[in-house]
Amino acid sequence: MISRFSGQITGPFDAELVKALPNSLAYICHNGAGYDNIDTTACSERGIRVSSTPIAVNNATADITMFLMLGALRQAYVPISAIRAGQWQGKTKLGHDPQMKVLGILGMGGIGREVSRRAKVFGMRVIYHNRNRLSPALEEGAYYVSFDQLLAQSDVLSLNLSLNATTRHIISHREFAKMKDGAVIVNTARGALIDEKALVSALKSGKVSSAGLDVYENEPCIEPELLDNPKVMLLPHIGTATYETQKEMELLVLENLRSCLQSGKLITPIPEQRDAWKSQAGTGISNCNGNNNGTNGRQNNGRNGHNGHVFHGHI
Questions:
Q1: Among residues 30, 46, 113, 237, which one is catalytic?
Q2: pLDDT band, residue 5 (cuts 50/70/90)
Q3: CA-to-CA distance for 252 and 294, rounded, in angstroms?
Q4: Which of 13, 57, 252, 261 sees the fewest Cβ atoms within 10 Å?
Q5: Domain boundary among 203, 234, 265
Q6: 86 in the same domain as 22
C-alpha cells in the first residue's frame, strides 16, 4: 500500500524505483484518491496494475471544500485570527453569501459531484467542465460549459481534478485573467494545479478576492505570500483526515488486495490503465490476470492472479 505520506520517506514512487522492483510484482494498491506520486507510465510499461481509493474520499473532501469555500467567501481568516489574538473582530470585513452565486467545478468526478450536491443546498448555481460531459442523471442539474466559459462565469471556482502532466498549472496567469473580477478559488485536489505565483499576483490585483487552499505546490512548504495573506484560508492537506474516511480508504485497499489475489482483478483501477486495458481486453472490467498488460501485447512475465506479488506496505 502506498499513501501520500510515503513520499516523505522515499520520495516519489518514480520510474527509477519502479524499475528496481522485482519482476514478480504484479499490483500496487495505493491508499489515496490522487496518485501523482506514482509514475503510472513506468508501472504500465512493466505490466504492474495500480489501484487507488477514489470512492472512499468523496464525502470528506467535498465537506472540506465547502468549509474552505464558505470561509473564503466570508474571508473568515481575519476574524478567526483576531479573536485568538484577543482583538475581538480585528479588521473583519463584510463577506459574501453563497446564495445565488455561480459555482464552477473543474473536474466533475465523484468529489466534484458531491461538492455540487452540497453547493446546491446553499442556493448556488452549479456549472462544470470535465473531460467528457456527464449524463443528465449524473449532472443532477449542473450545467456543462467549456473551460473558458467556466472561468468567465464562475463566482467561485473549485478544483476537483487529478494532477498530471496536462493539468499541472492548469490555472495560471492566462486563466486568472479570464475570471471574473473578485472571484473566489478553492483547491482541495493537488497544489500544483495552480501556479502559486500567478495566484499571488491575482490576489494582489483583486482579480481573486479570496482563496481557500488545502493543498500546495511544494508541500509541506507554503508560498510565503499566501501564508501571510489574510484573504486566504489555509489548511494543511486534511481533506480526508477523518476516522470514517481513513477506515473506508483502508478497507478499499484491502478489497483491492483480496480481489487481486482471488480473481486477478482490481476493483478500482486507475483510469489510465482501466481504459487502456478495457479496450484491449474487450471487457467492462479491469482484467489483471496477466494475459495482456496493455503494453503492445507484451506478456506480463507469466504473472497470473495470485501467482504475482502485491505491494501493500508503506514505503
A1: 237
A2: low
A3: 24
A4: 261
A5: 234
A6: no
